[in-house]
Write a structure and sequence with these properties.
about 450 residues; alpha+beta; Rossmann fold; 18 helices; RNA-binding
Length: about 450
RNA sequence: GAGGUUGUAGCUCAGUCGGUUAGAGCGUCGGAUUGUGGUUCCGAAGGUCGGGGGUUCGAGCCCCCUCAUCCUCCCCA
């Protein structure tokens, strides 16, 4: 006999957890739909070539590869096998992988269906993704993302709308958040102003850590990445700038940087004319790792709870280009449903009404009343009531304990006198009150609750 | 990929210096004159001490390996 187990970083979800998760999905979905996004689903697995090279070197390492079927060593790259070179060997023994996010499969879908789609195309997608990360707090190997993307327009309207979606969804979930925004062009502007455009990626990785390691840590990180003292001084000056206005002077020799500032000002200009329930703020240290972002970028953090980012996204000018269709600019955001769950659970934000869907349980004493209960249950279900019958007649104590454990709000007792009067003795489990009622009375009573 | 934490009953955890038959609370099941639960009382079941090896007269406790877990870094949702 073997001990049952599930893979590292995966989880089962019990009835209560599924209800709570569905609450999150339903809330986010309804906001997406209100903003005109349409549903899409793509396969759990993609061809490996679709996934590799889209998430940077780090991302490629975290892809789950699927071993080919059959005699997969028959076609293996013999040289790589002999040299024990795993990286070289992979492509010859695994041609598929589990999706790493929802954005890249979406881009693939858009390219494959470009003839039938009308642009701008707005889609949302709520599905699991897989990453071969080391599991830890707020990090799983299988987790759900809830994405909304619009592709085929470079209008900054969408940047503003996506910020509104974040704002409304988190407000409805009850999580106070800070929505941080930046622009990759601004980050590039910093690199240009500092005279190190070739070290753009190294620089962003370093300044991304500012709030975590402080300015000293960033300095150390920058010097480790061979960035000169003079460049560092410029970077520090820029990081200390209070707003986009102050940055304009520094970016005088960087057209890209100024363009990034223009974009941010436009988006904040649009948002400024609306009322938001959460803070949306410019954060120049926000970098984001996914290599395909080119314009505005977002990240969402819970305000009063320690957790990594619970949402992120941004504009990618040309993600479809690698699939042979250039010129389709896209922008999108993602909600990290599993982290949102952890935050809501930790802060006690789930509504109490989610615990049980059964409204009434029927209890009986003997075979005749049991059969009568079965008829009553059928009638109640026809009227739309969620009913459970205790599976065997007998001791009421056990039946009541079962109902209490399941949080079923009403228990109806059926005995000889009830059968004669064509009623059920309905007990309110919360108040303890009970009353003889007909099936019709029960239906209308439950409908009014 | 690097570093660390913790593995004892279904759950949360005690377990002294290495010493007889491994404990508690909660939960589960049964009962307290058979038409009423979440309170109380009584009783019972439930353990290969994660697994393997070693040291020792003797190991839950010490050593090695291994698996799992959680956390930190990296990176990310």
């Amino acid at each position: 006999m073997q001990k049952p187990s599930i893979p590292e970083g995966t989880r089962d979800f019990g009835p209560e957890q599924v209800r709570k998760r569905n609450f999150i999905f339903d809330t986010i979905r309804s906001v997406f739909e209100k903003f005109g996004f349409q549903p899409l689903e793509t396969p759990a697995m993609e061809n490996l070539g679709t996934l590799t090279g889209k998430y940077g070197d780090e991302g490629d390492k975290l892809l789950f590869k699927i071993l080919n079927n059959g005699d997969y060593l028959k076609d293996a790259n013999a040289d790589a096998l002999a040299a024990r070179d795993s990286n070289k060997l992979v492509s010859s023994i695994a041609k598929r992988g589990l999706r790493y996010d929802l954005t890249v499969p979406f881009a693939r879908y858009v390219v494959m269906n470009r003839g039938t789609l009308s642009f701008p195309f707005k889609r949302f997608q709520i599905q699991p993704v897989w990453r071969a990360d080391r599991p830890q707090r707020g990090r799983y190997r299988e987790f759900f993302q809830c994405d909304a993307d619009v592709i085929g327009s470079d209008s900054l309207l969408y940047e503003a709308e996506l910020a509104q979606i974040y704002d409304e969804a988190f407000a409805r979930l009850g999580i106070p958040v800070v929505i941080k925004m930046n622009n990759r062009k601004v980050l590039f502007g910093i690199a240009e102003a500092a005279g190190i455009p070739d070290k753009f990626m190294d620089m962003t990785v370093a300044i991304d850590k500012l709030d975590k390691v402080g300015i000293e840590g960033v300095r150390k990180e920058l010097s480790e990445r061979d960035i000169s003292e003079t460049a560092m001084a410029t970077i520090e000056k820029i990081l200390a700038a209070p707003d986009t206005q102050a940055l304009r002077a520094v970016f005088s020799n960087s057209a890209t940087g100024l363009n990034g500032l223009d974009e941010l000002d436009r988006v904040f200009g649009l948002l400024g004319k609306t009322t938001l329930q959460n803070e949306v703020k410019f954060d120049i240290t926000l970098a984001r790792g996914l290599s395909y972002y080119t314009g505005c970028i977002y990240e969402v953090a819970a305000k009063d709870f320690r957790m990594g980012s619970i949402g992120g996204g941004g504009r990618y000018a040309d993600l479809t280009g690698v699939f042979g269709v250039p010129g389709l600019s896209g922008v999108g955001i993602s909600f990290g449903a599993d982290r949102i769950y952890d935050v809501m659970e930790g802060m006690g934000l789930f509504p109490e009404t989610l615990v049980e869907s059964v409204q009434i349980m029927l209890a009986s004493f003997d075979e005749p009343s049991f059969e009568y209960a079965f008829q009553c249950a059928t009638a109640l279900r026809k009227a739309g009531v969620a009913v459970e019958i205790y599976p065997e007649p007998g001791k009421l104590k056990k039946q009541f304990e079962f109902a209490a454990k399941r949080n079923i709000p009403y228990v109806a007792i059926i005995g000889e006198s009830e059968m004669q009067s064509d009623t059920l003795m309905v007990k309110n489990q919360k108040t303890g009150d009970q009353e003889a009622m007909s099936v019709e009375q029960i239906v209308s009573m439950l409908a009014s609750v």
